[in-house]
Structures are given as C-alpha cells and as structure tokens.
Design a protein that fits this description.
Chain lengths: ~425, ~140
C-alpha cells in the first residue's frame, strides 16, 4: 500500500500541473463570437436565445439573470435564467404579468417597471426573488402616452429611485408630427412627462405628488445609469425626429438624417435640457432653437438649458447605458461608459445606422476623448444595418437594447428583436 | 376595296379579342391604374416613406407595416380616413401595437390620396383594388373633424 502511494503522489502532482496549464474551464466565446465584431482580445457568446422582447436586465453574482420583457411571454413579464458552468443559460422561470423596460437590483430588492408603475420584490441572500407574485407597488399613476411610453429606472446610494417619464410627443407640436404644425406655447406635456422624476425607493404607492421632477426638458430616455465616481445620474436622450418631414423647406433629408444629436447628460436636480424648445446640433456643437418654436436650423437657443457632456449622431437610439466598474476588461475601460444603440429608423431615405454598442472613454468622471464602436454587427451585415429595423430577412437581425455587468466583469447585452442575450468577455 | 376594308374591320376586332384572351393575367392593370400607381409612388416617397419604409414594411412597434394588413387591403373608407385624419392612437393593428402617432394628411389633394392609396394597395405584395378620386372626395365631404 505504501509503495502504491509513493508512486501515485508524483503522478497526482503532474496531473494538477497539467490541469493548471489548460485554459480555465468554463466560459468560452462562441466560435463566431456570436456574430459580433469586437476589438482584439474580446470574444462573445450567446448566453441564451429567448424569442422575447428582452429590454433591460440584471445579472446576479450567483449567475441568475433577470430580464424585463416589453411584452409578457407566456404570461411572464420578467424572465429568470440560470447560467451553467459554460456560460450558457436556460430559462428557469418567470414572473410578473406586465410588460415594461426597467429592471434594477439594489440593497436586497429587485425593482421593475411597467409603463405606468414601478414595483419591487424582496430578494434573499442569494438574490432570488422571495415572493414573485406579491411585489410592493412603490410608484403608480405615471403618464403613458402613445409614444415614449417605457419607464427606465435606476437607484442612487441614498434610497432614491429615478424614473424616466418620456414625452408623449415628438416635438410638442399642436398636431404631433404634422408638417408645418407649430409647437404649443409653454409645452403642457412637461408638467408630468419629458423628464426624470425622483421617488423614494422604499415608500409604497407614490405618485406625482410624492415625487420630485428631478430634471426636465428631456424628450425620452431609455438608457440611464448612476455614475459611482461622480455620484451622479447620467442619461441618454433620444433626440427628436423628422426635421425634414415637418419642415421640408428648412432641412434637407440628409440634414434630417444626421440631426439632432443623441445626447448624454449628466444631471443635477433642477436641470433643464431644453426639449421641445431646442435641440443639440452635434456638428456645430450648438444648442439650436427648434423649428416648431421659431428656429430656422441656425438660430441659437437662449435660456438656462444645460449642455450635453457628450453627443452622438442622430437617431441611433441609445437604449442602454452602463458605467463599467469591472476588472475583466483592460484598464482603459474602467469607469468608462458603454452605450447600446438600438439603431435608427428615422434616417430614411438615407441609410440607417447604429445597431451597435459604443464605448465612451471617461476620465475623472467626465467623457474624455472620442467614442468608438465596441461591439458591432448585431444587425447581421452592413447592408442589414443600412436597411435598418423592418420587416423580413433583409433588415436588421438583432437590436441591442439593455446592458449589464456580470460579477466577473463580463458585459451582457440584450436584443429586443429576437431576445438573444449576449455576453462579451476579454480573453487576455 | 371597300369589301377588303370591311373584311379587315371585321377580322381585326376578332383577332384583338383572341389576343386579349391569351394575354398573361399579370398584365391586367388598366392603363389608368398604372398611371395612378406611378403618381402614387411619388406621393408615397415624399409623405410616407420616412415612417413606413421604402418596402412598406414599417418599423417594428413604432410604425405599422402596410403589407398583410386589413387596414390597407380592407375597407377603403377606413383607409382614406386614416390618411385624412391621421392615426394618433395606440390601438392594436392585427394584434401588434405601434407607438408613433401618424399625423393627418388632409393637405393632400383627392387625386394625391387616391394615387398614393392605389400605389400602396397594389405594391409591396398587396393586391387590393384601386381607389378612385371620387371615393376620396366622398369620404372627405362627410369626414368628421
């Protein structure tokens, strides 16, 4: 017996040494990087294909994924998935009977929004929802119009929740989107929409009277995040549509495709970003009076309107914003912003654009340097990007929407067209 | 001479009739409708394309498609009213909702509306009948604001 051990011991040591030389078992990129184009050193895998309208998502340290669906699938508005050791996840359940966009996990609660209300669900130490059928309704009675109806949510570190209430209008015209129709004076939408509202995260049944209009003049926001370095709310505005359609004598189709900017705002309480009275021209770096309010495409806006901290080309539709705090990606990504651009529809007859995830470098809590395309080809090909979202196989296959950071520093991206969940890893 | 002319006059309509019978059915669009479709395409490009797309496919969840929908291929009066009054409501169309409001296009002439709807009803795979100027005129006359 002793003899046997003597011989076995060295074999065992060699075996362990060999094992350590192999790549870590577990998560590997798909052979085709899930169809994405990524910077050198990065890879991607399809975590799951859920055939749902997957909007925002949360990834827990325990490998569970909560995905908010725009429309419930088989009666479930939140999908629950669990990841296997290889990174591939399976749907293990679901709950909530409402569709929506916002979902956020903080301090023992999972928060989720419908298009009118915000709920929260207590989670256990493993971040599993304890009682999925009995959420606490914390906010109710929010305005929901035909357009910009989704509510995005994020929490700060002192018990407040921020909710986007989108303007139910393109540019507050007397007749929405009608050619030549002028803006309503003192846009009445702004009293209850077109801004970010702040509520208490732990108080039940709050409505407008209980909340604070934290920032106004923001047409619609889908992507937002709390910047921990600045301890500040950052949002991505969806800029107004159809400058040419509405004022064909003032704007060419090409100008209308490029303008106005999709803006990143760093918000303070009381800020006004100027919608519908102005828009931001990212080519001239100026705030311009909206044509509905007497502008001519050149006249600069006067008023106490904040400037964006960064501006991106028109109509790309920023639906996800995430400040990267992980350790997996190279140093330059730390504390920078990832932005998921859903992709344009409003550039026709010019080619459509977007359908990618952008990286915006930051330094000392402010955008620093040029943005770059980080993950591209969600659409399937440049031709499909140019064709944009639409009907049939000649159009974009996938549309990036929500972003989340995994416990190991992976970046997760949802697609609300086919419900694919992507995970981007750095391979070193 | 007169006899030959008479004979030709008799034969010609006959042969034309025979020829017409063997013509492929796809060429059945009447010349007036073809012209209306051609004019309608111009109206579409200027007024409709930016939302409903060059192929009439629309934009998912935002602007409805103009293909495989009862709104386009069905009741003409309802369709003419959509153009005149717009569609500022989020009601399901064939079980899907679309968030963007459509502005009224009452500023288009009866001719333009007839042409653009004839184009839409006869394009993108749609095979619905043409819409006449008189039909638009009649709907506009009784259209409630």
């Amino acid at each position: 017996m002793k003899l046997k051990l003597k011989y076995l011991l060295p074999v065992g040591v060699i075996g362990i040494a060999l094992f350590a030389l192999k790549p870590e078992p577990g998560v590997n990129a798909d052979a085709d990087n899930a169809g994405l184009k990524l910077p050198a050193g990065f890879g991607a895998l399809k975590v799951a294909e859920t055939a749902s309208q997957a909007r925002h998502l949360v990834v827990t340290p325990q490998g569970d994924i909560y995905v908010k669906l725009a429309r419930p699938k088989e009666g479930k508005g939140i999908l629950v998935l669990h990841e296997g050791a290889n990174g591939k996840a399976t749907v293990t359940g679901g709950f909530s009977n409402y569709g929506g966009t916002g979902i956020y996990l903080k301090d023992g609660y999972l928060y989720a929004s419908s298009n009118r209300e915000v709920f929260r669900y207590k989670v256990d130490a493993q971040n599993k929802v304890i009682n999925p059928d009995q959420p606490e309704k914390i906010i109710t009675g929010l305005k929901m119009g035909n357009e910009h109806e989704t509510k995005s949510i994020v929490l700060d570190n002192v018990g407040n929740i921020y909710v986007n209430i989108g303007a139910y209008s393109n540019s507050c015209q007397e007749v929405d989107r009608a050619t030549g129709s002028m803006g309503i004076k003192g846009c009445p939408i702004l009293d209850s929409a077109g801004g970010i509202w702040q509520f208490k995260a732990n108080k039940l049944n709050q409505t407008y009277g209980d909340g604070v209009r934290y920032a106004t003049g923001i047409r619609n926001v889908v992507g937002l995040d709390w910047n921990q370095q600045d301890n500040q709310l950052f949002v991505m505005q969806h800029g107004r549509d159809q400058l040419h359609d509405i004022f064909p004598n003032m704007f060419t189709e090409k100008q209308s495709a490029e303008l106005p900017a999709e803006c990143m705002y760093a918000l303070k309480k009381g800020d006004n970003a100027g919608w519908p009275y102005m828009y931001y021209d990212q080519i001239r770096h100026k705030k311009i009076v909206a044509p509905e309010y007497g502008g001519d495409g050149k006249k600069e806006a006067v008023g106490n309107f904040i400037d964006p901290v960064a501006a991106y080309p028109g109509h790309l539709a920023p639906n996800g914003l995430l400040f990267y705090t992980g350790n997996m990606f190279p140093e330059k990504y730390k504390n920078g912003a990832f932005i998921a651009f859903h992709g344009s529809w409003n550039r026709a007859p010019e080619p459509q654009a977007g359908y990618f995830v952008v990286f915006q470098p930051f330094k000392n809590g402010k955008p620093y340097g040029d943005w770059e395309i980080f993950a591209d080809n969600f659409s399937g090909s440049p031709a499909k990007t140019a064709a944009g979202a639409g009907r049939g196989p000649t159009h974009a296959d996938h549309r990036p929407c929500g972003l989340a950071q995994g416990p190991d520093g992976s970046l997760y991206v949802t697609d609300d067209s086919k419900g694919t969940i992507y995970r981007i890893i750095y391979k070193k | 001479m007169k006899k030959t002319i008479a004979a030709v006059a008799l034969i010609l309509p006959l042969s034309l009739a025979l020829f017409a019978q063997t013509k492929p059915k796809t060429a059945a669009v009447k010349p007036g409708v073809a012209a209306s479709i051609a004019r309608g395409k111009v109206v579409y490009t200027k007024n409709c394309l930016s939302c409903h797309a060059v192929d009439g496919g629309g934009i998912p969840h935002m602007n409805p498609p103009l293909v495989e929908t009862s709104y386009v291929s069905g009741d003409k009066i309802r369709l003419i009213k959509v153009v005149l009054n717009g569609f500022p409501k989020n009601v399901p169309i064939d079980d899907e909702t679309y968030s963007n409001s459509m502005a009224p296009h009452a500023e288009l002439s009866d001719q333009d509306i007839a042409d653009v709807l004839t184009y839409v009803r006869g394009s993108f795979g749609n095979k619905a009948s043409a819409i006449k100027v008189a039909e638009v005129k009649a709907v506009r006359a009784t259209n409630k604001k």
